[in-house]
Design a protein that fits this description.
Low-confidence stretches: 116-120
Helix content: 40-55%
Distance between the termini: 70 Å
Oligomer: single chain
Largest sheet: 2 strands, antiparallel
Strand content: under 5%
Radius of gyration: 32 Å
Shape: elongated
Number of helices: 5
């Protein structure tokens, strides 16, 4: 299966968990909403491991979103209680648990945002981290890349460039019919 198709099918898990979360919040079952948010993340990760698909670029953003939903579910289930007059009381322990869940989900989501795995210095072609299994180059073998286009650095006599390969062959017909390609003549 194509990697793009696998990744797109994997995104059905978090999107369906968002829909289930909204549904359970509307009907007032906040514990089920918490389970929907957690289940969406867990099934998404399990799917990507089993199908060996790459996680998309929006993985960190989805983790922040699902963690925010999880924090809202915690707050609605454990942080808010109804009193006998029809009002709401805020429970400090539930609010604190909700804030901790939100903090760690945002922290995890920011760490999972797409960033380059290794950076290469712009002036050399060496990688910053050299593995012990990889052979290292001697200082004289390293290639220095420069953006200088002076006459010394810019040489048109490449060994692989042969201008005669790009010319027309000797039997090429340069003539054309005059009636096919008539030039605009002034009318007299």
């Amino acid at each position: 299966m194509n990697d793009n198709i696998k990744t797109s099918l994997g995104l059905l898990f978090p999107f369906s968990s968002i829909a289930l979360f909204v549904y359970f919040c509307i009907i007032g079952s906040f514990l089920a909403a918490i389970l929907a948010a957690v289940g969406g993340v867990m099934f998404w990760y399990l799917y990507s491991v089993v199908m060996e698909s790459e996680m998309p670029d929006i993985t960190g953003n989805m983790i922040v979103l699902l963690g925010g939903m999880l924090a809202v579910g915690f707050f609605l289930n454990y942080g808010v209680t109804k009193n006998m007059f029809g009002g709401f009381n805020i429970n400090l322990e539930g609010t604190t648990a909700s804030a901790v869940v939100l903090f760690f989900s945002v922290l995890l989501g920011i760490n999972l945002r797409m960033r380059p795995a290794a950076s290469i210095k712009p002036d050399t072609l060496e990688t910053p981290i050299a593995s012990s299994a990889e052979p290292t180059l001697a200082e004289s073998d390293k290639f220095d890349v420069s953006n200088d286009l002076s006459s010394d650095a810019y040489n048109e006599n490449y060994s692989y460039y042969d201008p005669s390969e790009y010319e027309y062959p000797g039997d090429y017909d340069y003539e054309y019919d005059d009636e096919d390609y008539e030039l605009y003549e002034e009318e007299q």
